[in-house]
Amino acid sequence: MSVIIILLLASISVAALFLVAFLWSVKTGQYNDEMSPPMRMLLDSVPAKENTEPSKVESN
Amino acid sequence: MQVEKFYYDNRIVKQFAFATILWGVVGMLAGLLIAVQIYLPAANFGLPFTTFGRVRPVHTNAVIFAFVGNGMFMGVYYSLQRLCKARMFNDTLSKIHFWGWQLIIVLAAVTLLAGYTSGKEYAELEWPIDILIALIWIVFGINMFGTIIKRRESHLYVAIWFFIATWITVTMLHVVNSFELPFSWLKSYSFYAGVQDALVQWWYGHNAVAFFLTTPYLGVMYYFLPKAANRPVYSYRLSIIHFWALIFLYIWAGPHHLLYTALPDWAQSLGTVFSIMLIAPSWGGMLNGLFTLRGAWDKVREDPILKFMVVAITCYGMSTFEGPMLSIKSVNAITHFTDWTIAHVHVGALGWNGFLTFGILYWIIPRIFNTPLYSKKLATNHFWIGTIGIILYVIPMYWAGFTQALMWKQFTEEGTLKFQFLETVTHIIPMYITRSIGGALYLSGVFIMVYNLIKTVKAGSLVADEAAEAPALEAHVETHSKQYWHRWIEARPIQMLLFSLVAVAIGGILELVPTFLIKSNIPTIAAVKPYTPLELQGRDIYVREGCYLCHSQMVRPFRDEVARYGEYSKAGEFVYDHPFQWGSKRTGPDLARVGGKYPNSWHFNHMQDPQSMSPGSIMPSYIWLYKNKIDTAITPAKIRAMITLGVPYPKGYDLQANADLMNQAKEIQENLKSEKLETPANAEIVALIAYLQRVGTDIKNAPKPTVAALSN
């Protein structure tokens, strides 16, 4: 069953990568603000003047 | 702050959207064909490339990699640009990605129908295509990470994390599972053998579900659901927590596909424990999605897009509850190898992936074509027809799976098996018929969508470059000095991730694989010998025709299985199996002990006309095996490849192999002649018979330790 070692190696290295990414995201303050990101993604950054989109802005 | 003007690339989104629709229809048509073939063997048409064993991989590959794959890219290319407030990194890379992926799909379909398969479920494609997939996947990665790096929004929205995790993990899975040794331009043998191959394959297989069908679609859900409902996600914190929990747990769940097999117990338990833990993050995602609609259910009543998304998320919740349950050994003992598995995956595929894709298509197409959807009513009709289709598909399959499992395990009062295998098959044929009706309904819903979207596209015109503007991210481009250290990392985390992944993966794996694996192929059961050249050729025909898709080769240590098939399977029996052929479904009986069970003449007649030997059988005929000649020109290359993989053929055996092959073939020819069956010695059927007569017989030649062991 030596192949388990390879799978463990691969899995652990990917898990380690994710851990680094997680620590990075916490340390750089990615999660300091939980309010604005979900709101911000709702807004389209369309130029104000030439807004050709059919209006879908609703009051909420 | 400088406001920059830029343009989103909608053309690439359109291309992926159209490809999603096209391949969705193709994949589902293939699915409908094989669903009908299950109860109507004549629908195999007696042709190799229309027979179940070859069409089934086309169906699974088309639906997973072509339909969901293109759907994923459509969702990523649309949402990533907007979340990063930036056009895709490079238009040429986008084009290469799109056309490369379509080329892979076409090559996959052609080679699979022609019988070129690696014989590993969901990783059937042969080595040149595997390499192409890796290259195109890297192009996608560069394009995605490039866009993330040049983003104008410093916060990475949770959807982007899901996309990153998808890319990294799929890269690793594909590389590790695709280790194979080519012996011709289109054929190779898996580097791993037997148990090891099985473990790698299901580690890949389960994570493919996790990181190809789940994480990218969760990311896409976190973008399109709030957009479609026009309200923020219920809990952003929950989305982050469940993302990290999900990706850390998912990697370890694979062994639950191999419960009660020769895999070490601790690995099975590890798989089970992590699978059960997965309920928490999975349901975190489902609840977060459903709660996003709190107070907005009136919108769901009116909006078909939200209807599709709600059912998709609910199906996600159902299949991620079911998955952990199926990972419990006592449940798995009943459901494994039955149609329950088919029902389970179709709740995920039809419900979660399919319905989410449809919802997104109905949302994206009108936007990029700058016109309202042609008909909301048709979309609602599509929703209802599709939902009824799903119900008519999965309920009969759950029913069939449970019924068949119980029939398999039923003993009479005298202690003998109550049902022949064939009886358990004919009993569930009504369920198979109902399933195909459900599938046909689902597909007809898709046709309604195609019509609706064509009308929409014709009414509008593509906004190929959609204008947008946003302030630039605080300058970090030209400043290497005089910046805080975390700024530097912030600009380059992605490169760091990539470089370390590549370093670890290539270095570690390339070094370890050959040494470890070949050494461990030393047989643990002395009586297990390599296949003869004829049997090897026969085994490759077995793989080519996709026999493993309906027949397992793994007798589990249960009373009913030992009584029905024979001695349960041991790890040491599979050390020369490149690839392993354990299978995952018993549409037909297990074949692990088929060797020596029937005379050659039985196999000869059975493969030609299965119903003549077992009336009521649903197996198709394989008449082309009687005309096709064994490709002896390639025998030496096959033997050499096997020697490289550590199979102990004597030195120089590749030159002698064909002589041995013909001798054995003539013996079988003589034996058939004695029963008045005429065949050329070099017909493929002869090789297949040789292989089938060999399967699982080696341990019978082992020195018997005690008489007591034979009492079964």
Largest sheet of chain A: none
For this structure, the CATH topology of the domain at 533-711 in chain B is: Cytochrome Bc1 Complex, Chain D, domain 2
Average predicted local confidence, pLDDT of chain A: 75
* Proportion in β-strands of chain B: under 5%
The coarse overall form of chain B would be globular
Low-confidence stretches of chain A: 50-60
Helix/strand class of chain A: mainly alpha
The first-level CATH class name of the domain at 533-711 in chain B: Mainly Alpha
CATH architectural label of the domain at 533-711 in chain B:
Orthogonal Bundle
Order of helices and strands of chain B: EHHHHHEEHHHHHHHHHHHEHHHHHHHHHH
Q: How many strands, which pairing sense, and closed or not: the largest β-sheet of chain B?
A: 2 strands, antiparallel
Strand order of the largest sheet of chain B: 1-4
Indicate the structural class of chain B. Answer: mainly alpha
Chain-averaged pLDDT of chain B: 90
Poorly predicted regions of chain B = 476-483, 708-712
Strand content of chain A: under 5%
**In terms of quaternary structure, what is this?**
heterodimer
The number of distinct helices of chain A, counting runs of at least 4 residues, comes to 2
Helix content of chain B: 55-70%
Q: What pattern of helices and strands is seen along the backbone of chain A? A: HH
Give the SSE map.
The complex is a heterodimer of chains A (60) and B (712).
Chain A: H1 3-27, H2 36-40
Chain B: E1 3-9, H1 11-37, H2 52-84, H3 91-113, H4 127-149, H5 158-177, E2 180-182, E3 188-190, H6 194-229, H7 236-250, H8 265-277, H9 279-291, H10 297-302, H11 304-326, H12 329-335, H13 339-368, H14 376-408, H15 421-427, H16 429-459, E4 465-471, H17 485-491, H18 493-519, H19 533-544, H20 559-564, H21 600-608, H22 610-613, H23 624-627, H24 635-644, H25 653-673, H26 684-694
Antiparallel strand pairs in B: 1-4, 2-3
Helix pairs in contact in B: 1-2, 1-3, 1-16, 2-3, 2-6, 2-13, 3-4, 4-5, 5-6, 5-7, 6-13, 7-9, 9-11, 11-13, 11-14, 13-14, 13-16, 14-15, 14-16, 19-26, 21-26, 24-25, 25-26
